Amino acid sequence: MSYEEPGGGGLGDGNALREAERRIWLAAPHELADVAEETVRKLCGTDAAEIYLTDYRMAYLQPVASGEAPIALAGSPSGRALATGEPVLEPPTTVSPGTRRLLHLPLTVLGNRLGVLRVTLPDLPSAEERAELLDVAATLSRALEIADRATDRYRQARRRERLTLAAEMQWELLPGRVGSAPEYEFAGQLEPAYAVAGDNFDWSAGRDTLVISVTNGMGEGTAAALLTQLAIGAMRNARRSGGDLLEQCGLADETIFRHYGGRQHVATLLLCIELATGEVTAVDAGSPVIYRMRGGAVERVPLDRQLPLGMFGDTPYTEERFTVRPGDRLVIVSDGVHAAHLPGAVAAYEEEFLMRDLSESRLQPPADLVRTLLHRFVDRHQGTQLADDAVVVCLDWKGR
Q: What is the pTM of this model?
């Protein structure tokens, strides 16, 4: 393998690797994918290196710079690399003029699955070369995350269909779909991914706490998206000013009421988890519910449901507490999931399928679990449109 730059000696040559990473970091945001693909091709002495990004539904990998076809996540080597966070090397193929190896490298940042770098290699890479390519992929992942803030190119590449305006607003509001730390790992997903309106989730990781909220804005379309934006903006403002959950609820309740006079409201569940102890402080202001998986058992966490935010503007909210233990899993779902009725069903989704789906998916990591639950949920609608937005958030607690 050779890197065609002055002084470079290919993989295994520290100067070549540093030069490759330097070129990636210095690339203009809109040119990053092209520069990175060219850099990896020269570094590996190959004519094929492609970047793929996950689509909004987390079902496909979309090519960014090449004209290659999208790749289904389910059952593909690229999907396996993204799910495991490890490189996947396909069996060799013989083509003129020789043998080729296809290597799939995950592009992830702190557990957030951005996509895959797929490289066709002229020979079998050593363990050291794979590790070096993983380092390049890690640098590319960080650069992509930063570049995404300055150009539309990567968000355009991710969409398989047009987003509604409301969905565009909701995805822009989301801080990220995945987060991880030594104490926890969590993931969330919105559905319908390309037409979600009022449902969302928010999170903030701190030195001592993790704060998560799931919101369900009343109404449809952009009206629901605007309502949710107002609620999350108010809660963030209170949180970033040092306010606890009650202050966050209070400001959001007052702000929404002042704008809508009680005609519109936002069902919300807020959690604050102490990283040192696993103690959870919760405010249940509406319809999202929590399920706890402990050992082989699945149960709903009993919380006292209070009024949604914005109904009266001066609602006196109260906090409740429970504790998570290492090995516990919390799954939060909006009423678009647990209270949904499938075509021809006589009972709510929670009673018919949800508990079973949670149990059957218990070995999957959070990012896979939320995708599995929502894909099953959509499939069970038998081609009919979802009656309501759906949110699933999964938290695995490891503890200190």
A: 0.91
